[in-house]
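Section handout 9: paired folding examples.
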Amino acid sequence: MRELYPSIEPHASGLLEAGDGHSVYWEECGNPDGKPVVFLHGGPGGGCTPSHRRLFDPAKYRILLMDQRGCGRSTPHASAPDADLSANTTWHLVADLELLRTQRGIEKWQVFGGSWGSALALAYAQKHTDRVSELVLRGIFTLRQGELDWFYEGPASNIAPDTWAGFVGGLPESERIPGHLIENYGKVLFDPDPAVHQPAAVAWATWEFSNLTVQPRPDLIEGAQEPLGATAFARIENHYFRHDGWFTPGQLIAGAPRLAGIPTVIVQGRYDVCTPAITAWDLHQALPSAEFILLEDAGHAYDEPSILDALITATDTFANLS
């Protein structure tokens, strides 16, 4: 089993002035003359962590990470009581990536994305195909209505009824209406009163973090309890989900064939509760040239052992492609 590469620190970082009042944090690690790769975090709203730098061989890769609009070290932060997310959409993020690529003087880069990051990677690659050298995708999520309904409107409660009770409990009793939970969470999450929106945000984040792995991970669940981080995470996710990611129905799967010339690896846990394997399967049917890896002992999190092994195997293999 492959493990994360040793800890590294950025050798460059800054704030990208992206327009609309947004400053997007970026950092660069590894070999300045290495193969460019950009890491796209999940959520949306999850932000980057130091361990994400360690998915790539620092001797071979020029590693770029970016905290997407409204989260992590980017400003303004979506946890602010009066946060305005009107200029925070998928297509704003795609434009931010292109701005970062050009400002860093990169011709083409590998695009690595998991969970929401896989959706953003697909959206970016379908719009800027000639700028992508390879794709590494994990825990595939494309914001189709069935995917959203599965995890946020009730069916997943059949697998996790205990943690689902906490998710539903984050709403006032009058708002616990099956089929309208995402919509009704939006009302509470965007209430300007922290006494209203923060407990709801923690309930939203706890539901998701409780279902990332096959075996319980108390450290992940503990991370969902920090009110400001949970608020940005829950608000941004809810905002994107209420707008279907600004995609037409099935857009990312339908557009996948145009990526046939890009070497691609799809890594999926069979027991992924958050983003079930059917979406990864559908993507592979639309993009049969991709290598499809369905892991029999894994859920959703990138650092479950078999997922981590498959991801680092992919990045190591691609490191040697010209």
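Moving on to protein 2 of 2.
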Amino acid sequence: MPYATITGWGKCMPPAIMTNDDLATFLDTSDEWIFSRTGMRERRISHVDVDELAYVAAARAIACAGLEPNDIDGIIFGTTTPTTLAPNCASYVQKKLGNESAAAMDLNSACCSFLFALSNAASLIRNNVMKKVVVIGGEKLSWALDWHNRGVSVLFGDGAGAVVIEATEEPIGVLSSKMGCYGEVRETLAITNFGSGFDRTLDTYSRISWDFEGQEIFKRATRGMVLATEEALARADMPIADIDVVVPHQANLRIIDAVAKRLKVPMEKVMVNVERYANTSAATIPVALCEAVEQGLIKPGANVAIPAFGAGLTWGAAIVKWGDRVTPLAETDVELEPCDKTALELIQPYL
């Protein structure tokens, strides 16, 4: 049975930056208030749809792996904010890449979407259904936010990241995973009035709101991420002491710190970029993986733990043994179209 190893990685962060001071121009908040509670200083606001962010990230990951688009036989796109429901966003990525026949599917498990997509892609490879898969996590949460809700709007941002995983006979790549859900408390983190349960005769966007019970989310998130990591480690027959790097979902710094302490992992082994991007939901892990490689935190042969949680309340973790390469085999000239607006100008229609 083949293994599924990561051979390419790429990210796409939109250029418009919204700082905490920008938020304070229309919210009763401040840089100190936000940073002390979340560890966040700024976030990105996208001027394009999420499927375009995903396309750029995927193109960069494919180039990094030294592959051509038609080498890919599967595209799995994890997102909570798809541009379209039918057709799915993965088919947009396939078309833009110029790929002729790859299976294309979207997956929604909120902030766990990338992790769940990675686990599913690895299973498809191990069962000889596919050989080379692009796994994407991307969001345009700026569209769905209630920007006047201070408890929510300061937490989230836009972006996308992707990895290529390939079949290999070497015992590397996605070694194990564990996925779960605390469905009994699914209402503690919910985007309301968003979906087919909503009255379509009403003005949809103006009525989108968020339910966000911070204390319950914190408790369940830390429990789920730690439990999943421990179970995934047991399935990989690996002690926590053998983990070189933890790349967690970047929900906020308090949750990341709590998970590291409960796992007894020092923070110098934990990848953190929430200060610059805030919570980009499904995009946080692939973007953090890219930056962990770029910054030299992930080295050849590193054992990587990847825990996450999301609305639902979904939770999970994967254990990945990195291969022997931490530099791209090639690059692409694919870029986002230019942005001529500031972040505040981009969200103005939503205010």
